[in-house]
Specification:
elongated
């Protein structure tokens, strides 16, 4: 993970620097855990100190799931609009498509995809 410059940190409102000492073993552990997230060591330590956990970035698979969920949300919006304007039958076509997408995602969640 690339390091942020002092200027970038200050732009984010971070003006106070904290320093603490660790053993070589503790340092290696912190570096390993930060790399697993992935996060810069300072960001990893900050989040652990403030929240007790590090919020990870989305994986590529999670990003694809989010895109699919957005597509479903958009489909449901179309469904509602069609049902309001045209009645139930045209809206059913959209509903069936969205239901299929939801079923596909649920299968991946429950059966590991």
């Amino acid at each position: 993970m690339p390091k942020k410059s002092k200027v970038n940190e200050e732009k984010e409102g971070k003006r106070k620097r904290l320093t603490f000492y660790v053993t070589e073993e503790e340092n290696a552990t912190i570096e390993r855990k930060a790399a697993q997230v992935p996060a810069a060591i300072s960001e990893y330590c900050r989040q652990m100190a403030l929240f007790g956990a590090v919020r990870t970035r989305f994986t590529e698979e999670e990003k694809r799931w989010i895109v699919r969920l957005i597509e479903m949300s958009n489909g449901l919006t179309v469904l509602i609009e069609q049902a309001e304007k045209q009645g139930v039958i045209p809206a059913m076509v959209v509903f069936i498509e969205v239901r299929g997408m939801i079923d596909e995602l649920l299968k991946k969640f429950t059966h590991g995809g």
